Amino acid sequence: MPDLADLWSPIRLTLALASVTTVVLILIGTPIAFWLARSKARWKEVVGAVVALPLVLPPTVLGFYLLVVLGPDGPGGWVAGLFGGRSLAFTFEGLVIGSVFYSMPFVVQPIRNAFEAIGERPLEVAVTLRASPWDAFWSVAVPLARPGFLTGAVLGFAHTVGEFGVVLMIGGNIPDETRVLSVAIYDYVETLQWGHAHILAGGMLVFSFVVILAMMLAGKRFGRPGL
Amino acid sequence: MSHSASLARMRSLGLSLAAMLTVMASTGAARAGEVRIAVAANFTAAAKEIGALFEQRTGHKAVFSSGSTGQLYHQIAQGAPFEVYLAADRARPLKAVDDGLAVPGSLFTYATGRLVLFSRDKALVKGAATLKQGRFAHIALANPATAPYGAAAIRVMRALGVHDALAPKVVRGNNIAQAYQFVATGNAELGFVAASQVARHGGGSRWIVPDRLYPVIAQGGVLLKRSGKNAAARAFVAFLRGPQARAVKLRYGYGAGD
What we know:
heterodimer, A: mainly alpha, MetI-like fold, 11 helices, 78% helix, 0% strand, B: alpha/beta, D-Maltodextrin-Binding Protein, domain 2, 2 domains, 5-stranded mixed β-sheet
């Protein structure tokens, strides 16, 4: 196959996007999930609902708002201005921002569930043993919630790999920058290059199956369903 | 035994259903008909306006579904209940005729599309020179592989000798509507859009790309086989070629077609 590079570029880009997004989501999703699991605030479910919104919103809605927010009329344009640009749309960074919103529920929810499953007790015990809240969080809550982190990371990664609508709306389909796997497949199908489409789409199918199977097996090992 | 009995019952049910539908269809035609039209996204606004005039004039009802030309084609091939197909090119309606989905000989050009270089910045677009100077970060167009307006934009850039220089600045919308979104939200400073998208509002700066720089964007329409004896479908096609529809097309920046 002479144009293997054409196929490799979207794969590499997609893996990079999913990796960066997953790391960012673990970093900002963990405190959100912990707060949602522990807080007694009555309005916490409002925050929970906002986090879960991308589950039900069509990607076109999210994509449309992102296009406005990332552009020169929104904060994205201001941030881009610091680096001499005028918009975060059509950039890899813009896609990361979009993906973080889009995949957030898939990371926050499993981690929150894991924190809730631990209950109050282990943390109270840790505090009576004079652990600081910070220490209790790191040496008790996080290790106990490990299955939730694993599930969240895998789901966040996989969901970002499968992202299509949002990227289509804010990416601009630029090779090596924003032309991810799902967009490349769509292009190949639309232009009847089914040979290329088969290679990428087949790879996607196998990848998704392996991810889901691994989740189920891992869930079994940890003694609770992973999905 | 019971198997053939149930088969017979199903058949008689089917017959009575068909009879019921025939009665419904004929009474419908006797009063006022309804025509269902699949229309390419870029022509939707104009089509609705034409549809309203058509309803006033004939008493028939026109129902529109819009989408990309390719997606609508797939839907029609899968048996979607449309009677008229208004595409953004002539290739897909022609294919519909070849595939036996459309009435042979019914293909006509209902409008010709015009390409406009548009920016919401009042001072940016000043004609071909703007493209040659290239003082912008992003220029938006529709995906040339799938959208006729995108392919036309590429031809314009090639004709002006700026294609290779501008290639790294090109961002591609999935269709012409998305290319317009990129420009309207200011994410891309300028872009090639359909005249119909910017014909109804002022503001910004624009350059109507001269016809000689790209092959004509002929938008073809066909009567689909499914229309059968529906008088409303035929009436709509005739109305679409008439003077009232023509006035609407021109107002939206289209050529009137044939």
